[in-house]
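Before the break, one more example. Copy the sequence into your notebook; we will annotate it together after we see the structure.
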Amino acid sequence: MTTAGREAKVVLVDIEGTTTSISFVHDVLFPYARKNVEKFLNDSWSDGETKQIVQDLQQVPQFAEYKATLSAPSAEANVALIAHFVRHLITKNLKITPMKTLQGLIWAKGYENGELKGHVYEDVPAAFQAWRNAGLRIGVYSSGSVAAQKLIFAHSIEGDLLTHLTAHFDTHVGHKQDKQSYTNISKSLGEEPQQILFLTDIPGEAAAARAAGLQAIILQRPGNAALSVDQKNSFEVIPDFTLLSLQLPKN
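Here is what the structure looks like once it is written out:
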């Protein structure tokens, strides 16, 4: 099936490298979290939500590995220890769910005070509107927390795009290169997998989605990783959303 006149009931979009530049995530959001994590933890250390995140961070295997590298680690978790561990995870770009949750809370402060504006490519607003006009639902599946997803689109440089979105999924539903994650998403959406089109920049994610029965297209945005010849031959590849015309199934 070609991109022109492709049929689906739901468009499921990735964020980084698909709707939003990789450079925004790595050059703006990640450094902001690194800079502000210690202050955020200091200000909210006694809050129930932060306490749960700190507890969850200590349960991931990377925490024990990290503590083993320290010459004199604190016996009890404290702000400095957790802040340094989070910075370590950010540097390694490890997609650890409680760390992503914490990042989302830190970014919320930045969006709230105007220090952050979510980047989206200029073709995204028109595409979202066209897909909704055609009767499709739009969902998001990103390794960033659901809260962080909503912030990017609600406070985007193109205005509030959150109203276009009806479903959000993060790594609580499963890892993005795991077939079962897409099966879980299909069930949550109440749609047959073949009625869902997944848009991503990562071939491994596209392969997992397709293995679960979803349609999948790869975005080759500026700054995205180069694709091999085999990957280009295995998937449809488009440079942006302008070439993607979608409609509901006729039957």
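The radius of gyration is 19 Å. The longest strand covers residues 137-141. Try to locate both features in your own notes.
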